[in-house]
Amino acid sequence: MAAVLLAAALGTACAAEGAGPPGTGAAGRHGGQEQGGQERGGQGPQAPQARPRTASGALAAYVERFRREHAARAAAARRWGLRRTPLLPPDPPKVKPEITFRKGFEVGDPSLPPVFTTVPTRDRVVFLTIDDGAEKDPELLRMMSELDIPYSAFLSDYLVKEDYGYFRRMRDLGVALHNHTLTHPYMPALSYAEQKHEICGQQDVIERHYGKRPTLFRPPYGNYDSDTLRAARDCGIKAVPLWTAEAFPDRMEWREWDRDLHPGDIVLTHFRGRGDWKGSMADMVRQAMDTITARGYAVARLEDYV
């Protein structure tokens, strides 16, 4: 990855070097010089001149910046007790992949929001998602911010309403907040109208407190029927991500036969603490990230692909 990035930087630097007359720099290309060769705000011949942008100079600056960023990331990984420094994801795709129903997850109407467990991509990335909102651990916010690991939250109001401000801080850190119903019921046991109330009601809550109506919905327990998806569509939902693996502080649980990760897999975990788990949310992140990194994957932002 480093070699690819350095090559890209060299190409960028070379392009910049040939973009204008020698010695003009960025100011010269954008009209920053007055007639007679004096720079704006300068004092004639005594004004400092822009240093020429060279390929070697730009490359050296890029290498130094990359080195510093990698060192900071490695230091954060050590500070939080990870065995390895998390891998960096590639740039998001310019065009998002088409999301369709996973085979066997259909309900007979292909126009409904698709239910899927894996995003179609060749990138060696997976996606971390956290459900419900029971545990509101400030350590999680610090850890994920310092490690720069993206994740998505699927929220249920009966738990989130205990502290809307916690999830507002999460949103302000760049985390996307999605729909997990108002009260976390078993959806197939409800009528269409009841399911619509659960989903649309949570859409209203998230918009009221966080400013945006989600387009992703995860049914509680992963259970749904055609009424669930009809209600989701009627509430503005575009897709229904489930999961292929689940992270706990002391283990990973797998839903695929090979008990492994694959490009585009969605990893589930929950907002839980020591009262429910054998560890904290930070312990869960360590377990998940050590597994993901050891298998050669980076964590990417789900909303960049869906």
From TrEMBL:
This is NodB homology domain-containing protein. One of its GO terms (molecular function) is hydrolase activity, acting on carbon-nitrogen (but not peptide) bonds. Keywords: Signal. GO terms for biological process: carbohydrate metabolic process. Residues 20-44 have a biased composition (Gly residues). It comes from Streptomyces roseolilacinus. InterPro entries: Glyco_hydro/deAcase_b/a-brl, NODB_dom, Polysacc_deacetylase_ArnD. PANTHER family: GLYCOSYL TRANSFERASE-RELATED, SECRETED PROTEIN. Residues 124-306 form the NodB homology domain. It holds the Pfam family Polysacc_deac_1. Residues 15-55 are annotated as: Disordered. Residues 1-15 form the signal peptide.
